Automatic annotation (TrEMBL):
Protein name from the UniProt record: LysR family transcriptional regulator
Membership in a protein family: Belongs to the LysR transcriptional regulatory family.
HTH lysR-type domain span: 12-69
Source species of the chain: Alcaligenes ammonioxydans
Residue intervals passing through the bilayer: none
Keywords: DNA-binding, Transcription, Transcription regulation
Gene3D superfamilies assigned: Periplasmic binding protein-like II, Winged helix-like DNA-binding domain superfamily/Winged helix DNA-binding domain
Length: 310
């Protein structure tokens, strides 16, 4: 991942970083202006300055709002981490003691993130002797508002969340992309998988509706029909299905590596086609912004998802 030029950061107004993060979360100049209590003109002016500092467009206007460029996705976790460090200096969570609390934290997240994060959270809590506990609920980038309302979730964690509103706040945790995962004992691929092997392999599909995903569009661009032998709406079910089968899955890199840690039969390989990047964010109710327990939970999740862990 490319790093941020420190000399540029030193010359930068801190408010520009806040504008960047808000644009990353809201994907709209209008919504970012409302969230920051600024005019649209002020946000646009800040974006122009950011583009000069980073020598990149950062956000381009499209049919679905302001779309972050590859460079924006690269620097988003670093800017988020910088703002987190500054926030830590200004606030204190020492009043909440997880070793003296029986609090049950409710977290809505997709199963790919659950597989990675839940075990980290539970392991850390046990190692530290905390008396708190966690409840995890399934959601995705489209259904997170419903999940938060139905389950009273303290946090929702998902990739590239849709429908962000002024009633919620969000923060980028990290950026990610996609990788191939398969059963090394059931199918023989080159290392890494070649483009021809990938295009002619038998695939498992994981998508919101189980009918079509972005990989199908990659195959359309190659003028080929993907050989999909099974479709799933959850990654955990798909992983169970590929063990002992010749299927290859294309899934978020953090989830694939987490699954490999649990099963030595599984192997990963870069996708031999250009795949998109995306960001994973956590979202919370704006009314919990200054709640000491919620603030502690957000800091805990940030620490567990720092780039060094990926």
């Amino acid at each position: 991942m490319a790093s941020i030029n420190i000399a540029n950061i030193r010359r930068m107004d801190l408010n520009l970083l806040l504008v960047f993060q808000c644009l990353m979360n809201e994907r709209s100049v209008t919504k970012a202006a409302n969230a920051l209590f600024l005019t649209q003109g002020a946000v646009s002016a800040s974006l122009r300055k950011l583009r000069v500092v980073f020598n990149d467009e950062l956000f381009t206007r499209g049919s679905h709002g302001m779309t972050p460029t590859h460079r924006a996705l690269e620097i988003a976790p670093q800017i988020s981490e910088a703002l987190k460090s500054i926030s830590t200096l200004l606030t204190s969570d020492q009043d909440f003691d997880p070793t003296r609390s029986s609090r049950v934290f409710r977290i809505a997240l997709s199963d790919d993130l659950e597989n990675m994060l839940a075990k980290r959270m539970i392991r850390t809590a046990n190692e530290q002797g905390w008396t708190i506990s966690f409840s995890f609920y399934q959601t995705n980038s489209y259904l997170w508002p419903q999940s938060m309302q139905e389950h009273g979730a303290d946090l929702a964690i998902c990739s590239s969340p849709k429908f962000l509103s002024t009633m919620h706040k969000s923060q980028v945790l990290f950026s990610a992309s996609y990788i191939c995962i398969y059963d090394r004992h059931s199918v023989q691929f080159s290392s890494p998988i070649s483009k021809q092997e990938y295009l002619h392999a038998h695939h498992g599909r994981v998508s919101f509706d189980g009918l079509r995903g972005f990989v199908d569009e990659l195959f359309d661009a190659e003028r080929l029909q993907r050989k999909v032998k099974a479709s799933f709406t959850h990654f955990s079910g798909a992983i169970n299905a590929i063990v002992g089968s010749p299927l290859v899955l294309t899934m978020p890199d953090y989830a694939a590596r987490s699954f490999v840690e649990c099963n030595s039969r599984l192997a990963v390989s870069p996708v031999p086609l250009r795949v998109p990047s995306f960001v994973v964010s956590m979202i919370w109710d704006i009314n919990k912004e200054h709640d000491e327990e919620s603030r502690w939970l957000r800091r805990f999740v940030l620490e567990l998802t720092e780039p060094a862990d990926h």
